Amino acid sequence: MEHSGHGMNMDLPPFTLGRGLEFSADPFFLAGCVLALVLYAYAVLRLRRRGDGWPVNRIVFFVIGVLSIALVMCTKLNDYGMVMFSVHMVQHMVISMLSPILLLLGAPVTLMLRALPVAGRDRTGPREVLLMLLHSRYMKIITHPVFTIPLFIASLYALYFTPLFDFLMSSKPGHLAMMLHFLAVGLVFFWPIMGIDPGPHRPGYLMRMLELFAGMPFHAFFGIALMMASAPMVETYKSPPASLGIDPLSDQNWAGGIAWAFSEIPSVLVLIALVFQWYRSDQRIAKRSDRAADRDGDKELAAYNAYLASLQARGQ
Protein backbone atom coordinates (compact mmCIF):
# COMPACT_ATOMS: atom_id res chain seq x y z
CA MET A 1 0.00 0.00 0.00
CA GLU A 2 1.48 3.35 -1.08
CA HIS A 3 0.44 6.20 1.19
CA SER A 4 0.37 9.60 -0.48
CA GLY A 5 0.95 11.33 2.86
CA HIS A 6 4.58 10.27 3.24
CA GLY A 7 5.36 9.11 -0.26
CA MET A 8 6.75 5.87 1.11
CA ASN A 9 5.73 2.25 1.19
CA MET A 10 3.50 1.81 4.22
CA ASP A 11 3.41 -2.00 4.19
CA LEU A 12 4.83 -2.00 7.68
CA PRO A 13 5.34 -5.17 9.75
CA PRO A 14 2.97 -5.80 12.69
CA PHE A 15 3.34 -3.10 15.32
CA THR A 16 5.51 -3.66 18.36
CA LEU A 17 6.82 -1.06 20.79
CA GLY A 18 10.38 -1.76 19.69
CA ARG A 19 9.54 -1.16 16.03
CA GLY A 20 7.53 1.93 16.88
CA LEU A 21 10.44 3.51 18.76
CA GLU A 22 12.96 3.06 15.94
CA PHE A 23 14.42 6.34 14.70
CA SER A 24 12.55 7.76 11.70
CA ALA A 25 12.66 11.52 11.93
CA ASP A 26 10.29 14.02 10.43
CA PRO A 27 12.81 16.69 9.28
CA PHE A 28 10.63 19.63 10.32
CA PHE A 29 9.97 18.38 13.86
CA LEU A 30 13.55 17.16 14.29
CA ALA A 31 14.90 20.60 13.37
CA GLY A 32 12.30 22.29 15.60
CA CYS A 33 13.15 20.12 18.62
CA VAL A 34 16.90 20.66 18.25
CA LEU A 35 16.42 24.42 17.80
CA ALA A 36 14.16 24.64 20.89
CA LEU A 37 16.73 22.84 23.05
CA VAL A 38 19.63 24.95 21.73
CA LEU A 39 17.81 28.26 22.27
CA TYR A 40 16.66 27.25 25.77
CA ALA A 41 20.19 26.15 26.73
CA TYR A 42 21.65 29.39 25.34
CA ALA A 43 19.18 31.48 27.36
CA VAL A 44 19.96 29.59 30.59
CA LEU A 45 23.71 29.96 30.03
CA ARG A 46 23.24 33.67 29.33
CA LEU A 47 21.49 34.09 32.70
CA ARG A 48 24.16 32.14 34.56
CA ARG A 49 27.01 34.09 32.97
CA ARG A 50 25.63 37.28 34.47
CA GLY A 51 25.14 35.61 37.87
CA ASP A 52 21.40 34.87 37.69
CA GLY A 53 19.99 31.44 38.44
CA TRP A 54 17.34 29.42 36.68
CA PRO A 55 15.52 26.53 38.45
CA VAL A 56 16.77 23.09 37.44
CA ASN A 57 13.25 21.65 37.59
CA ARG A 58 12.16 24.04 34.83
CA ILE A 59 15.05 22.87 32.63
CA VAL A 60 14.07 19.24 33.23
CA PHE A 61 10.40 19.87 32.40
CA PHE A 62 11.23 21.70 29.19
CA VAL A 63 13.72 19.08 27.98
CA ILE A 64 11.28 16.24 28.67
CA GLY A 65 8.56 18.22 26.88
CA VAL A 66 10.70 18.60 23.76
CA LEU A 67 11.75 14.95 23.90
CA SER A 68 8.10 13.89 24.16
CA ILE A 69 7.45 15.67 20.84
CA ALA A 70 10.48 13.97 19.30
CA LEU A 71 9.26 10.62 20.64
CA VAL A 72 6.03 10.71 18.63
CA MET A 73 7.26 12.66 15.57
CA CYS A 74 10.84 11.46 15.06
CA THR A 75 10.34 7.71 15.42
CA LYS A 76 8.42 5.10 13.47
CA LEU A 77 5.41 5.92 15.65
CA ASN A 78 4.91 8.66 13.07
CA ASP A 79 4.96 6.09 10.24
CA TYR A 80 2.64 3.68 12.03
CA GLY A 81 0.38 6.61 12.92
CA MET A 82 -0.37 7.09 9.22
CA VAL A 83 -2.00 3.64 8.98
CA MET A 84 -3.03 2.78 12.58
CA PHE A 85 -5.67 4.88 14.34
CA SER A 86 -4.49 3.77 17.78
CA VAL A 87 -0.89 4.89 17.18
CA HIS A 88 -2.07 8.16 15.67
CA MET A 89 -4.18 8.77 18.78
CA VAL A 90 -1.09 8.29 20.97
CA GLN A 91 0.64 10.95 18.85
CA HIS A 92 -2.34 13.30 19.13
CA MET A 93 -2.75 12.93 22.88
CA VAL A 94 0.97 13.32 23.65
CA ILE A 95 1.55 16.32 21.39
CA SER A 96 -1.65 18.15 22.39
CA MET A 97 -2.03 17.29 26.08
CA LEU A 98 1.26 16.09 27.57
CA SER A 99 3.97 17.98 25.65
CA PRO A 100 2.35 21.44 26.12
CA ILE A 101 2.08 20.99 29.89
CA LEU A 102 5.73 19.96 30.18
CA LEU A 103 6.90 22.79 27.92
CA LEU A 104 4.90 25.37 29.89
CA LEU A 105 6.28 24.08 33.20
CA GLY A 106 9.67 25.01 31.72
CA ALA A 107 8.53 28.68 31.60
CA PRO A 108 10.13 29.45 28.21
CA VAL A 109 8.50 32.90 27.88
CA THR A 110 9.75 33.99 31.30
CA LEU A 111 13.21 32.71 30.39
CA MET A 112 13.21 34.70 27.13
CA LEU A 113 12.13 37.88 28.91
CA ARG A 114 14.96 37.49 31.41
CA ALA A 115 17.62 36.50 28.88
CA LEU A 116 16.88 38.98 26.09
CA PRO A 117 18.64 42.35 26.51
CA VAL A 118 16.67 45.56 26.98
CA ALA A 119 16.89 47.57 23.74
CA GLY A 120 17.27 50.93 25.45
CA ARG A 121 15.36 54.16 25.44
CA ASP A 122 13.11 54.77 22.41
CA ARG A 123 14.36 51.59 20.74
CA THR A 124 12.58 48.33 19.96
CA GLY A 125 14.34 45.00 20.20
CA PRO A 126 13.24 41.35 20.40
CA ARG A 127 12.34 41.69 24.09
CA GLU A 128 10.13 44.71 23.46
CA VAL A 129 8.42 42.96 20.53
CA LEU A 130 7.72 39.95 22.76
CA LEU A 131 6.23 42.19 25.47
CA MET A 132 4.03 43.96 22.91
CA LEU A 133 2.81 40.58 21.65
CA LEU A 134 2.06 39.36 25.18
CA HIS A 135 -0.07 42.45 25.87
CA SER A 136 -1.70 42.62 22.43
CA ARG A 137 -5.43 42.30 21.79
CA TYR A 138 -4.70 39.24 19.63
CA MET A 139 -3.11 37.43 22.58
CA LYS A 140 -5.99 38.40 24.86
CA ILE A 141 -8.40 36.75 22.45
CA ILE A 142 -6.53 33.49 21.79
CA THR A 143 -5.82 32.86 25.50
CA HIS A 144 -9.35 33.63 26.73
CA PRO A 145 -11.39 30.56 27.79
CA VAL A 146 -14.26 31.62 25.53
CA PHE A 147 -11.85 30.93 22.66
CA THR A 148 -9.55 28.20 24.02
CA ILE A 149 -12.18 25.77 25.35
CA PRO A 150 -14.26 25.61 22.10
CA LEU A 151 -11.04 25.34 20.07
CA PHE A 152 -9.82 22.50 22.29
CA ILE A 153 -13.10 20.63 21.81
CA ALA A 154 -13.40 21.36 18.09
CA SER A 155 -9.93 19.91 17.52
CA LEU A 156 -11.49 16.54 18.25
CA TYR A 157 -15.05 16.56 16.97
CA ALA A 158 -14.75 18.94 14.01
CA LEU A 159 -11.62 17.16 12.82
CA TYR A 160 -12.27 13.44 13.21
CA PHE A 161 -16.00 13.42 12.49
CA THR A 162 -15.75 15.44 9.25
CA PRO A 163 -13.88 14.88 5.94
CA LEU A 164 -11.23 17.39 7.10
CA PHE A 165 -9.15 14.69 8.80
CA ASP A 166 -8.99 12.54 5.65
CA PHE A 167 -8.07 15.60 3.59
CA LEU A 168 -5.17 16.50 5.91
CA MET A 169 -3.94 12.92 6.10
CA SER A 170 -3.79 12.68 2.29
CA SER A 171 -0.61 14.79 2.08
CA LYS A 172 2.57 15.29 4.05
CA PRO A 173 2.04 19.10 4.43
CA GLY A 174 -1.52 18.42 5.64
CA HIS A 175 -0.34 15.90 8.22
CA LEU A 176 2.40 18.28 9.36
CA ALA A 177 -0.09 21.15 9.67
CA MET A 178 -2.43 18.97 11.72
CA MET A 179 0.29 18.00 14.19
CA LEU A 180 1.40 21.62 14.55
CA HIS A 181 -2.24 22.54 15.14
CA PHE A 182 -2.52 19.96 17.94
CA LEU A 183 0.60 21.37 19.62
CA ALA A 184 -0.54 24.99 19.26
CA VAL A 185 -4.03 24.24 20.61
CA GLY A 186 -2.55 22.48 23.63
CA LEU A 187 -0.22 25.41 24.33
CA VAL A 188 -2.91 28.12 24.16
CA PHE A 189 -5.34 26.00 26.20
CA PHE A 190 -2.94 25.17 29.04
CA TRP A 191 -0.95 28.43 29.05
CA PRO A 192 -3.45 30.52 31.08
CA ILE A 193 -4.27 27.51 33.27
CA MET A 194 -0.64 26.80 34.20
CA GLY A 195 -0.05 30.50 34.96
CA ILE A 196 3.76 30.30 35.10
CA ASP A 197 4.61 32.45 32.10
CA PRO A 198 3.19 36.00 31.90
CA GLY A 199 0.14 36.49 29.71
CA PRO A 200 -2.91 38.72 29.26
CA HIS A 201 -5.38 36.23 30.75
CA ARG A 202 -4.55 35.34 34.36
CA PRO A 203 -7.55 34.00 36.30
CA GLY A 204 -7.40 32.95 39.94
CA TYR A 205 -6.54 29.40 40.94
CA LEU A 206 -10.14 28.26 41.35
CA MET A 207 -11.09 29.62 37.92
CA ARG A 208 -8.09 27.87 36.36
CA MET A 209 -9.30 24.56 37.76
CA LEU A 210 -12.77 25.21 36.35
CA GLU A 211 -11.25 25.96 32.92
CA LEU A 212 -9.30 22.72 33.07
CA PHE A 213 -12.28 20.57 33.97
CA ALA A 214 -14.50 22.33 31.42
CA GLY A 215 -12.48 20.86 28.56
CA MET A 216 -11.38 17.45 29.82
CA PRO A 217 -14.77 15.63 29.84
CA PHE A 218 -15.14 16.19 26.11
CA HIS A 219 -12.01 14.14 25.52
CA ALA A 220 -13.52 11.33 27.54
CA PHE A 221 -16.81 11.54 25.59
CA PHE A 222 -14.88 11.47 22.31
CA GLY A 223 -13.02 8.34 23.38
CA ILE A 224 -16.23 6.63 24.48
CA ALA A 225 -17.87 7.49 21.12
CA LEU A 226 -15.03 5.74 19.28
CA MET A 227 -15.15 2.74 21.59
CA MET A 228 -18.92 2.30 21.21
CA ALA A 229 -19.01 2.67 17.42
CA SER A 230 -20.08 -0.47 15.56
CA ALA A 231 -18.17 0.47 12.39
CA PRO A 232 -14.97 2.36 11.52
CA MET A 233 -15.68 6.11 11.67
CA VAL A 234 -12.59 7.55 9.95
CA GLU A 235 -12.05 6.80 6.26
CA THR A 236 -8.24 6.96 6.50
CA TYR A 237 -8.12 3.95 8.82
CA LYS A 238 -10.88 1.80 7.29
CA SER A 239 -8.48 -0.33 5.22
CA PRO A 240 -5.17 -0.80 7.06
CA PRO A 241 -2.35 -2.62 5.22
CA ALA A 242 -2.71 -6.38 5.37
CA SER A 243 0.90 -6.60 6.59
CA LEU A 244 -0.18 -5.13 9.94
CA GLY A 245 -2.60 -7.95 10.65
CA ILE A 246 -5.10 -5.70 12.48
CA ASP A 247 -8.86 -5.30 12.44
CA PRO A 248 -9.83 -1.64 11.79
CA LEU A 249 -12.73 -1.70 14.27
CA SER A 250 -10.56 -3.19 17.01
CA ASP A 251 -7.86 -0.62 16.24
CA GLN A 252 -10.49 2.15 16.51
CA ASN A 253 -11.60 0.78 19.88
CA TRP A 254 -8.00 1.02 21.06
CA ALA A 255 -7.82 4.59 19.78
CA GLY A 256 -10.96 5.45 21.77
CA GLY A 257 -9.55 3.87 24.90
CA ILE A 258 -6.33 5.87 24.53
CA ALA A 259 -8.27 9.13 24.08
CA TRP A 260 -10.41 8.34 27.12
CA ALA A 261 -7.42 7.41 29.33
CA PHE A 262 -5.41 10.46 28.32
CA SER A 263 -8.22 12.78 29.42
CA GLU A 264 -7.29 11.91 33.01
CA ILE A 265 -3.49 12.26 32.78
CA PRO A 266 -3.24 16.01 32.12
CA SER A 267 -5.98 16.71 34.65
CA VAL A 268 -3.91 15.10 37.40
CA LEU A 269 -0.63 16.73 36.29
CA VAL A 270 -2.11 20.22 36.02
CA LEU A 271 -4.06 19.87 39.26
CA ILE A 272 -0.89 18.92 41.15
CA ALA A 273 0.95 21.89 39.59
CA LEU A 274 -1.88 24.29 40.46
CA VAL A 275 -2.14 23.13 44.07
CA PHE A 276 1.64 23.49 44.44
CA GLN A 277 1.55 27.01 42.89
CA TRP A 278 -1.35 27.97 45.15
CA TYR A 279 0.56 26.78 48.22
CA ARG A 280 3.72 28.67 47.13
CA SER A 281 1.67 31.82 46.50
CA ASP A 282 0.12 31.65 49.99
CA GLN A 283 3.57 31.14 51.49
CA ARG A 284 4.93 34.23 49.70
CA ILE A 285 1.96 36.34 50.84
CA ALA A 286 2.44 35.16 54.42
CA LYS A 287 6.16 36.02 54.31
CA ARG A 288 5.42 39.50 52.93
CA SER A 289 2.89 40.07 55.72
CA ASP A 290 5.40 38.95 58.33
CA ARG A 291 8.09 41.27 56.95
CA ALA A 292 5.62 44.18 56.89
CA ALA A 293 4.65 43.45 60.48
CA ASP A 294 8.31 43.40 61.53
CA ARG A 295 8.89 46.77 59.86
CA ASP A 296 5.91 48.63 61.31
CA GLY A 297 5.63 46.85 64.64
CA ASP A 298 2.46 45.10 63.47
CA LYS A 299 0.36 48.28 63.41
CA GLU A 300 -2.49 46.41 61.77
CA LEU A 301 -2.79 44.01 64.72
CA ALA A 302 -2.47 46.86 67.22
CA ALA A 303 -5.22 48.80 65.45
CA TYR A 304 -7.48 45.74 65.48
CA ASN A 305 -6.86 45.20 69.21
CA ALA A 306 -7.67 48.86 69.88
CA TYR A 307 -10.89 48.46 67.91
CA LEU A 308 -11.90 45.44 70.02
CA ALA A 309 -11.09 47.38 73.20
CA SER A 310 -13.30 50.27 72.08
CA LEU A 311 -16.18 47.87 71.43
CA GLN A 312 -15.76 46.37 74.86
CA ALA A 313 -15.66 49.86 76.48
CA ARG A 314 -18.88 50.82 74.70
CA GLY A 315 -20.56 47.67 75.91
CA GLN A 316 -19.73 48.59 79.48
SSE layout:
Blueprint: E1 2-3, E2 8-9, H1 17-20, H2 27-49, H3 56-73, H4 77-80, H5 85-105, H6 108-115, H7 126-134, H8 137-142, H9 145-160, H10 164-169, H11 172-194, H12 205-228, H13 248-262, H14 265-296, H15 299-315
Antiparallel strand pairs: 1-2
Helix pairs in contact: 2-3, 2-6, 3-5, 5-11, 5-13, 9-11, 9-12, 11-12, 12-13, 12-14
Walk me through what this model shows.
By secondary structure, this protein is an all-alpha fold. It has 15 helices and 2 strands. It has a two-stranded antiparallel sheet with strand order 1-2. Strand 1 and strand 2 form a beta hairpin. Helix 5 packs across helix 11 and helix 5 packs parallel to helix 13. The longest helix has 32 residues. It is globular. The N terminus is likely disordered.
Parts with pLDDT < 50 across at least 5 consecutive residues: 1-9
Proportion of strand residues: under 5%
Given the C-alpha coordinates, what overall shape results? globular
Mean pLDDT over the residues? 84
* SSE string: EEHHHHHHHHHHHHHHH
Number of strands: 2
The oligomeric state of the chains shown is single chain
Q: Roughly how many Å is the radius of gyration? A: 25 Å
Structural class: mainly alpha
Helix content: over 70%
Biggest sheet statistics: 2 strands, antiparallel
| First-residue to last-residue Cα separation | 95 Å
Strand order of the largest sheet: 1-2
Number of helices: 15
In short:
This protein is an all-alpha fold. It has helices spanning 17-20, 27-49, 56-73, 77-80, 85-105, 108-115, 126-134, 137-142, 145-160, 164-169, 172-194, 205-228, 248-262, 265-296, 299-315, and strands at residues 2-3, 8-9.
